[in-house]
Amino acid sequence: MVRKLRGLPRQSVKAVAGVSFEIKRGTTFSLVGESGCGKSTVARMIVGLYRPAAGSIRIGGHDLARTSPAEQAALRRQMQMIFQDPYASLNPRWRVRNIIAEPIRAFGLLDGRQAIDRRVDELLRLVGLAPSDGEKFPHEFSGGQRQRISIARALSSNPEFLVCDEPTSALDVSVQAQILNLMKDLQGELGLTYLFISHNLAVVSFMAHQVGVMYLGRLVEVAETDRLFRNPQHPYTRLLLDTLPDLSMARRDRQPMGGEVPNPINPPTGCSFHPRCPLATDRCRNERPAVRVLSDGSEAACHAVSSTVGTTPAMPLSILRRVS
Description:
Blueprint: E1 2-3, E2 11-12, E3 28-32, H1 39-46, E4 58-59, E5 62-63, H2 69-77, E6 79-82, H3 96-106, H4 113-126, H5 143-155, E7 161-165, H6 173-190, E8 193-197, H7 201-207, E9 210-215, E10 218-224, H8 225-230, H9 235-241, H10 282-286, E11 292-293, E12 299-300
Parallel strand pairs: 3-8, 3-9, 6-7, 7-8
Antiparallel strand pairs: 1-2, 4-5, 9-10, 10-12, 11-12
């Protein structure tokens, strides 16, 4: 990303750098981190809204940048995105039936209005709405219902992979739980694979099989969800977990999150987290840590990772209770 500021020469920002992960088919990989860390940029690059300056994006072993236009279109059909704001992501001038049918027509999946209408009715039922809702406009629905419409639209092209960019952050807590339960049910029923973007660790612990923690455009830790919440390795992950309420009343020691996220135009030398890290040393200030694969298969980018190994008690989170 290049920006021109008044009185300053043109400057460039690396919104994302060195991010690499793999999502197993039928599972959920979640990216977490503070606002501005690059989570949504990664999501938009994967679905083709942004073009990466370097690197590759592979779907089923196929590099999207090195396939023919026909092959790329087939791969793109397998991916859909659910956006954060259910109010802004639906065309207010279209009836819901046309919104959901748009990918079906765009990819030429069905011929004839009756066949398309039957498929739209099926999708509306699948997400917990009635076929008659297809004749309404988006403004006639609540936020949770609009997100159900967004999910139905995403499923209309029969995708295998859904990129979910904070799909519940604009909803109240009770509606969040309903949407998350729906997404879990659809994953089990349809065998979907999710990339789930969120800053809500409670939601992540419920949805994800594996978690990647991002800070200033880089992955600092990748681990199975249970292991990450039970025994985080990177100091930033530990500080993130310390922001969760201690519902177990265990009165465990906490390290409050201090400092500000550095300016990405002029990031710190060495480890980008060192200005806020309680374990920072001279090495952290001068040398960027490489990603290390640990004995349990998880990954961490921290010079002090061997000395920060410990056990953080698992925390009960009230939002994880399933809503019937």
